[in-house]
UniProtKB/TrEMBL annotation:
PANTHER family according to UniProt: MULTIDRUG RESISTANCE PROTEIN YPNP-RELATED
Membrane topology recorded in Swiss-Prot or TrEMBL: Multi-pass membrane protein
UniProt KW keywords: Cell membrane, Membrane, Transmembrane, Transmembrane helix, Transport
One function term, GO molecular function aspect: antiporter activity
Listed name of the protein: MATE family efflux transporter
Compartment(s): Cell membrane
GO cellular component entries: plasma membrane
Transmembrane residue ranges: 21-38, 58-79, 99-117, 137-158, 170-194, 200-221, 242-268, 288-308, 320-342, 354-378, 390-411, 417-443
Length: 464
């Protein structure tokens, strides 16, 4: 077998695999979040106009990152299942074609972004003061989008093999390098000129460019996952369809979240800027608190995908039930820590008593449902890994559109800011029950249809 199959997730203790994969992923995500905070901090030192300009760039960037995460989910799903089948040829074809697809998509969105740059940001509300800074940042960012999308998809392919440490190392390396280059390029040093907000974008392009080369080297030289022959157009098209079958719904569901949260922020604004500021502070704390759940959702896909390819539904069931129970148990610790430490945490960000009050309310109520949010993330990742994006799409849509959005509207009208915060808890708890039951039902049905695990076989020559 090639090195792609050195770390088979179809063998060995389930809990050991999950722990060994989750810990490095959680550390990598923490480093990435720390870099994003540092990026905002350094740009903020340039002035309010530059900081406002950077804030305007978040929605378009998040939409493109959501697309990238979705394509990565589709890539991880199909490759993990092929590895579970022990079909080396299929793995190489799928990996190569996923990188080709992400390259073409990144070039398309680069052209689209540059062509629509000013109209899009004018629509978002940018004025003549912020627009020059937005252009300085986004022109470089769009030109470097290929160095963002392709490595992220490549790292999804690496995770599909069960190798989580290598992508985690890349993510940590990129974050550290970016935090080093940011002040150097933004403020200048010695012969290096101060580039201002352009320097922040250039730091991203340089570090992501290095990660692009790094990922291609690993996929080719270490894991031997790239094809070195010309394929037929039919095979490429079939592989793209398989990737997009999961990737497009996953992208769409990722895009729903920021759109619905925008509605919540607009409602909070009707109750005063204090509520909006408190939500911003609490959201930053929340992002760091949910790192372990984000990590679990990232690693459960490769595990479920490989075991699905091998017909090991018993291992899939064990991994998911164990993950769900961990989410609930860990929530107790999170809720206690955040609840009792809410006032102290809020005062690290602001001295405004009104903002502190609402941060405390948020961190007392919403963390009670963080484990339920984790269950939803893990369930969605599992369904995508199984090649069944429909349940994941329904669950996400149910949470954000069917439950959350009406709940914040009702909560805002009758209970004010507290009602908006409680809506998050209601959405997480209610939809997590649906997600848990749906996963259990699906696995029971599949295990009834396939009662015996599929025995490992040698590589089967198969197109695509």
């Amino acid at each position: 077998m090639s090195r792609s199959f050195d770390s088979m997730l179809t063998e060995g203790p389930v809990s050991t695999h999950l722990i060994k994969m989750t810990v490095p992923m959680a550390l990598a995500l923490s480093a990435t979040m720390a870099f994003n905070l540092a990026d905002t901090y350094f740009v903020g030192q340039l002035g309010d106009a530059q900081l406002t300009a950077l804030s305007f760039t978040f929605p378009p960037i998040m939409l493109l990152i959501s697309l990238t995460i979705g394509i990565g989910a589709g890539t991880s799903s199909v490759i993990a299942r092929a590895i579970g089948e022990r079909n080396e040829r299929k793995v190489r074809h799928l990996t190569t074609d996923s990188l080709l697809l992400s390259t073409l998509l990144s070039l398309f969105f680069t052209a689209l972004g540059l062509f629509t740059l000013e109209p899009v940001f004018r629509m978002l509300g940018a004025d003549d003061t912020t627009m020059p800074y937005i252009k300085e940042f986004m022109i470089i960012w769009y030109l470097g989008f290929i160095t963002v999308m392709v490595p992220m998809v490549g790292m999804a392919a690496l995770r599909a093999t069960g190798d989580v440490k290598t992508p985690a190392t890349i993510m940590v390396g990129v974050a550290i390098a970016n935090m080093f280059l940011d002040p150097l390029l933004i403020f200048g040093l010695g012969p290096i000129p101060a580039l201002g907000i352009e320097g922040a974008a250039l730091a991203t392009l340089i570090t992501r460019g290095v990660s692009l080369i790094w990922v291609f080297y690993l996929l080719s030289a270490k894991h031997h996952m790239l094809r070195h022959s010309l394929p037929s157009l039919g095979d490429v098209a079939a592989n793209w369809r398989a990737i997009l079958h999961v990737g497009l719904p996953a992208s769409a569901t990722n895009m729903i979240i920021p759109l619905c949260i925008s509605v919540a922020v607009a409602l909070l604004a009707t109750h005063g800027n204090d509520a909006v500021a408190a939500h911003g502070v609490a959201s930053r704390v929340e992002s760091m608190s949910l790192v372990i759940f984000y990590a679990m959702s990232a690693i459960i896909g490769p595990f479920v995908g490989q075991n699905f390819g091998a017909g090991r539904f018993d291992r899939i069931r064990e991994s998911l039930i164990g993950s769900f129970l961990f989410c609930l148990g860990f929530t107790v610790l999170l809720a206690l820590a955040l609840g009792f430490g809410a006032d102290w945490t809020a005062r690290r960000f602001t001295e405004d008593e009104a903002i502190i009050h609402w941060v405390v309310v948020y961190l007392t109520l919403v963390p009670l449902s963080y484990g339920c949010h984790g269950i939803i993330m893990v369930a969605n990742a599992a369904f995508n890994a199984l090649g069944r994006p429909f349940p994941a799409t329904v669950i996400s849509t149910m949470r954000m559109v069917v439950v959350y959005t009406p709940a914040i509207l009702i909560g805002s009208k009758f209970f004010g800011v507290t009602g908006i915060f409680v809506a998050t808890t209601i959405a997480n708890v209610s939809v997590s029950i649906v997600a848990w039951l749906w996963v259990v039902y699906f696995l029971r049905r599949r295990q009834e249809d396939n009662p015996e695990p599929t025995a490992p076989t040698d590589t089967v020559p198969e197109a695509g």
